[in-house]
Amino acid sequence: MVNINTSQDMAIIWVRLMVQTFESANLNICELFERVGLEYSRLNNPHGKFKQDELSLLWQAASLESGNPAIGLLMSNSPVMSVFNELSYGILASDNMCEAMSRLIRYQRFVGEAMDFKVQEEANGYRIIINSAGHTHKLAYEGFDGALAIILVNIRWVSQLEITPLEITCFQPTPDNIQPYEALFRCPIKFNQEQTSLLISHEDYIRPSPIANKAISAKHDDEMTRSLKELDQTNLSRQVMNLVIKQWNQVEPQIEDVASYFNMSKRTFQRRLKEDGWTFLALVDHCRKVMALEYVEQPKYALQHISHLLGFTEHSNFYRAFKRWYGMTPKQYREQLN
């Protein structure tokens, strides 16, 4: 599957979590920022963004300065709740890991658009994959180590068990010292892989959480949805998505019609979308993905009817698309919500 997100943007909350991690390693944060040419004052803007390339430089400098190539794993000790706020509360109140990951995917823009999370079903379980796109410089593996560490901490928190993944894959070369990885993950770890991922057993992925609270998760879902709407008002691609979803009528919209709605020529419209990291076709596919999840989560909609609503000519095409998006068929997803 091609990653359609080509934005380099990472949210300020992710950078603040990085800073807390660096502080736990006793690094001088202001000096670290200055060394890579970044202004520390940018952290004061709650709506600020950092580019993935900038953060790669920051991770690499922190790894070198600390003398700890596995510094990203220290994110497992950072106070995530104080940084992610509503996103963390909603995730931790989820019924199980399946629902928690669905929330992370749905609201991943609050972490950053340069990182893309997806779930892929395999014979032994569900593989949570972390991708990135839009970068022009070499990616810092330390940030991916941190993402793996945070996901695992949340898995263990939601389950209230010391769940052990079946496997971890990392794209960096095998380190001289793998002990920090073995201590945290306690499972087979493969380095020099094409993607960063962790594989969770079927049983653990749908295991009911003893701290689940539907009222809390619903409350924070509402707050996150309102926050997303506020973000959408300043971004053309998000405005287009809102329009496409609102006016979807069982058939794909035509680019000429949407461009005209925004008083743009087709060429100007395509250029503006490209600046946001999208093509029109990829954006329409994303809208289908969003609507598919919303419909499937509502039992009143038969799966056959959802397929029709989304404009699929064949029901099997809907099943394949949903599995591509969310790592399981719509029937499997719906069954696990009960």
How does this model look, in words?
The chain has about 350 residues and is an alpha+beta fold. It has two domains: about 10-205, H-NOX domain (Alpha-Beta Complex); about 235-335, Arc Repressor Mutant, subunit A, CATH 1.10.10. The protein has 17 helices and seven strands. The chain has helices spanning about 10-25, 30-35, 50-65, 80-85, 85-90, 95-105, 140-160, 180-185, 200-205, 215-230, 235-245, 255-260, 265-275, 280-295, 305-310, 315-325, 330-335, and strands at about 10, 50, 115-120, 125-130, 165-170, 190, 195-200. The strands form two sheets. It has a five-stranded mixed beta sheet. The chain has a two-stranded antiparallel sheet with strand order 1-2. Helix 8 (about 180-185) links the parallel strand 5 (about 165-170) and strand 6. The model is unreliable at about 1-5 (pLDDT under 50).
List keywords for this structure.
338 residues, alpha+beta, H-NOX domain, Arc Repressor Mutant, subunit A, 2 domains, five-stranded mixed beta sheet, two-stranded antiparallel ribbon, 17 helices, 53% helix, 9% strand, globular, disordered N terminus
By DSSP, the count of extended strands is: 7
The helical percent reads: 40-55%
**Numbering strands along the chain, what is their spatial order in the largest sheet?**
3-4-7-5-6
The structural domain count equals 2
Number of helices: 17
Could you say which overall geometry the principal axes of the C-alpha atoms support?
globular
* Helix-and-strand structural type: alpha+beta
Rg calc = 20 Å
